[in-house]
Automatic annotation (TrEMBL):
Keywords: Acyltransferase, Transferase. Residues 16-160 form the N-acetyltransferase domain. Pfam families: Acetyltransf_1 (PF00583). This is GNAT family N-acetyltransferase. Transmembrane segments: none annotated. It comes from the Bacteria. InterPro entries: Acyl_CoA_acyltransferase (IPR016181), Bact_Acetyltransf (IPR050832), GNAT_dom (IPR000182). PANTHER family: AMINOALKYLPHOSPHONATE N-ACETYLTRANSFERASE-RELATED, AMINOALKYLPHOSPHONATE N-ACETYLTRANSFERASE-RELATED-RELATED.
Length: 160
């Protein structure tokens, strides 16, 4: 059984621990690098969680964090799903599905008509998960990755 816990800026130590675990476990899956956050103090972590209208969730199993996700409000009816990660011991148990569904419901409640995300090219397991949830590849150019050549792949789904 997994419980989803909505995180506030006061929960920054939990968010920090889960984010560091994600960046350590799967550095290939994120644009951000552990070094970007390693020296980050309380203010840096609180600021990340204090984005107005954001939705930050940690999945807990027996009080242990096993996943995370963020929803970020955008413009023109578009919200973003970011930072999805599931710990190795919880993969295949539907935790990713629950986290995606939580952000989808948040985006709908927020009045969004589109939910988009960016995935690192080659992350086939993430791409397959997103496709199962109705996301399709777009022609939008994603952010440039640290190699200076490759771009994130943008995916989106209509909510209404």
């Amino acid at each position: 059984m997994v419980d989803l816990h909505i995180i506030t800026s006061d929960d920054w130590p939990l968010w920090r621990d889960v984010r560091v675990a994600a960046l350590t476990d799967a550095p290939h899956a994120f644009k951000a690098r552990l070094a970007d956050w390693h020296g980050g103090g309380q203010e840096q972590w609180r600021a990340r969680l204090a984005i107005p209208g954001s939705y930050n969730v940690v999945a807990l199993r027996e009080s242990r964090p096993v996943g995370m996700v963020r929803g970020i409000p955008g413009d023109s009816g578009t919200s973003e799903l970011r930072s999805l990660w599931v710990s190795p011991e919880a993969r295949g148990d539907g935790v990713g599905d629950q986290l995606i569904e939580a952000v989808t419901m948040w985006a709908l409640r927020s009045g969004s008509t589109t939910l988009k995300l960016a995935v690192i090219p080659g992350n086939e397991s993430a791409t397959a998960l997103y496709r199962r949830h109705g996301f399709i590849t777009t022609e939008e150019l994603g952010d440039l990755l640290p190699d200076g050549v490759t771009r994130e792949q943008v995916m989106a789904k209509r909510l209404r």
